[in-house]
Amino acid sequence: MNTELFGILASFIITLLIGIPLGKYLAKMFAGEKVWTDFMKPLESGIYKLSGINPNEPMNWKQFLKAMMTINAFWLVYGFFVLMHQDKLPLNPDGNPGMSADLAFNTILSFVANCNLQHYSGESGATYLIQHFIFMFLHFCSAATGIACAIAVFKAFRDKTTTDLGNFWAYFVKGITRLLLPLAIVIALILTFNGTPASYAGKDKFISLQGDTVNVSRGPAAQMIAIKHLGTNGGGWFGANSAHPLENPNYLTNVVEIVSQMIIPIAMVLAFGYFIRRKKLGWMIFGVMALGTLMLMIPTISSELGGNPAIAKMGIAQTTGAMEGKEVRIGPMATAYWSTLTTVVSTGSVNGMHDSTMPLTGLWQLLAMMINSFFGGCGVGVLNYLIYVIIAVFISGLMVGRTPEFLGHKVEAREVKIAALITLLSPFLILAGTAIASYVFTNFGNADWAVKPSTWLNNPGFHGFSEMLYENTSSNANNGSGFEGLGDGNIFWNVLTGLVIILGRFLPIIGPVAIAGLLAQKKYIPESAGTLKVDTVTFSMMTFAVILVLNALSYFPALALGPIAEYFSMLK
Amino acid sequence: MKKYIIQSIRLTVVLTVLLCVIYPVLITFAGKLSKGQGDGEKIIVNGKVVGYAAIGQKFDKPQYFWGRPSAVGYNAAGSAGSNKGPSNPDYLKDVNSRIDTLLKYHPGLKRADIPADLVTASGSGLDPDISPEAAKIQVKRVAQFRKLDEQKVEALVASQTEKPWLGMFGPSKVNVLKLNVALDALK
């Protein structure tokens, strides 16, 4: 018990010890100042030269977004066809089949969008070629896309009045060569030397001690697991993700994996402050996010440590906590800790099955993904938070009767409209998606489909509703974890969540970049006594309140029907 | 626009070489130096592979220590948890029947002494470990069935219990396969 507590405290401290200096480094590196990784320059020039890119070419916000959308669209088309024909391509030692069109559609959207919702199972649904050339490739590139877009926003606010947001390709390539790749190499080596397979050997077969014949799936997994965490992707090598004993062999690897998924989101927030030379603002945002994360984490841990009341009634000792869907080497506390962090930062990798967690744990997981801006995914977390800030600036402005301003720029109708639309998008996608699914489930349960809707749910009652709500929430947040009992490997769920994923990814990136681009075009107004100061505790609490109120209003009814109802039904 | 398309394609090709060939192959070669040569660490008894250290296997015969229930029957070609929700009545029935089985095979065992990990399925379905308490309650049965001294088996469990990482972080555990291999070697 105590050793489990020390375990998560150590994880937390290590995260801060790496995340904070990393934030300073990122700010310097992306600003083009001298950093120790400058030895990568020849590699970068090589990449630019071979790709026909001039990294110093300025881009306005429209050009920046065009470049970003073009390469993402290319990955979608190229990946879609490769997934469908994976069986005919090399590196398929286990003879896995090609994907159906709807599954390929869902899977490629999911990986391009940094979501990594997986409607296939790694062992039987994807070849080694796909796992590396599509999935792992996109693990790097989707994270670098998010980071590049965040840096563009940073630059817009630093340069005061400008139309130049910097060069998308340059940010993107540097994000890989100076951040993701070097760290991924370190993490992959740690995993490999702790027992995660890294060779290209296919399935193995042996006779067990008791005499059963057993097949074991393997493959070059360590490489992908490293970047799946670092890039807040979460799409794992094996079906059971980081609960799998080869994907997460011991407590040390568990610490490494949980630390690695937090460091970039934390670093990006602090980098924002350092980059725009308002260190205090970075720390204020960090404070709000850390507070929100702790408010989600503490009740999660306590609800898991309490164990399952229904099993307690049977007279069983749950001394360490609820164990269904968890692994002994990790333990309930580290699993609860992980489940909060993986939902706040949109990684969506799991080291225990969320479907089997306690009802209130499910509530906090859902809420974390609905808010989706307490640290959030690589780059996009800061962008999501910026939307809430714009709303908070607007409301504060109304309250004190002044034109709202943010960092020296007047926030006017156009920017507020964009922010409001992005804020409404999440509830719309999550609730409409869940409503459609519930409608089909209740009214067309026996429809003559390949998978009958009545067989979708693995659990009856309120928990079944939570499964559908979770799937849509996770898709919109580009999280990718799931209440995996849901029978989601069919055309209905593939298409529905595919659409939710792509809208939930790109609109919340385009919105903030556009807002930053528009604001930066305006005249800079120097700070005066009448300026709303955004780096104060008061304004931070205002933003926090905006986040809570918006999300509570949007989602409370749906949450009441799912996890909250299940919680009360178990009390009696 | 056309410029961006061509740049996108060329950049994708270049990065594919860096991220999908150079990087993974580098790790694969480094992995050759690790304990399992990057293939996963095997457990070998009398020159025969009997399993992987990290992969749990099915033990249901009375002469062996049992592992945790598994949603995939310890078939390591795949992996999955049960994904049963905490209030699911069918699931609770399963747990109840697991408790009954344990009580049947361990006369004198009290319900309050059964640790939760022994009646709940793991997340991967391949959990190689059980808690030290889960091993202790099975000592009597295993010893009786093998006609071994109970204290000797108990000492074996103690020696096979893995302490938390660095003695400080995370839970204690017992690897069921390693324990059973050591048990078979016990005279």
Give the helix/strand layout.
The complex is a heterodimer of chains A (572) and B (187).
Chain A: H1 2-30, H2 41-51, H3 61-84, H4 101-112, H5 122-125, H6 128-158, H7 168-193, E1 204-207, E2 213-216, H8 222-230, H9 251-275, H10 279-305, H11 309-312, H12 331-344, H13 359-371, H14 380-400, E3 405-406, E4 409-410, H15 413-443, H16 461-476, H17 491-521, H18 537-571
Chain B: H1 2-31, E1 42-45, E2 48-52, H2 89-105, E3 129-130, H3 132-136, H4 139-146, H5 150-160, E4 161-162, E5 173-175, H6 176-185
Antiparallel strand pairs in B: 1-2, 3-5, 4-5
Helix pairs in contact in B: 4-5, 5-6
Membrane topology (chain B): Single-pass membrane protein
GO cellular component, one term (chain B): plasma membrane
InterPro entries (chain B): KdpC
Describe the structure.
- Chain A is about 65% helix and about 0% strand.
- By secondary structure, chain A is mainly alpha-helical.
- In chain A, α6 (about 130-160) runs parallel beside α8 (about 220-230).
- The two termini of chain A are about 30 Å apart.
- With about 190 residues, chain B is mainly α.
- In chain B, about 45% of the residues lie in helices and about 10% in strands.
- The mean pLDDT of chain B is about 95.
- At the A-B interface, α1, α2, α3, α6 and α7 of A face α1, β2, α2, β3 and α6 of B.
- Chain A: Keywords: Cell membrane, Ion transport, Membrane, Potassium, Potassium transport, Transmembrane, Transmembrane helix, Transport.
